[in-house]
Amino acid sequence: MERQLAAVSTWGRLGNFFNRIANPSIFMRFSEWFLYVLAVGALVCFISSLYLIYHSPPDLKHGHNVKMMFVHVPAAWISMMGYSVIFFSSIGYFVWRHPLADVSAQAAAPIGAAFTFLALVTGSLWGKPGWGTYWEWGEPRIMSVLILFFLYLGLMALRQAIEDRYQAAISCSVLGMVGFVIVPIIKFSVDWWNTLHQPASVLTSEGSKMASVYQNPLLIMGLGFTLLFFWIHFKKMRVEILRRRVLTLQMSQVEKASRQQAAE
Amino acid sequence: MFEYGPHTDLIIASYVITSIVLLALIAWGHLGEWSQRKALVRLEKQGIKRRSSQR
Question: Which residues of A touch B32 (CB under 8 A)?
Answer without folding.
Answer: 235-236, 239
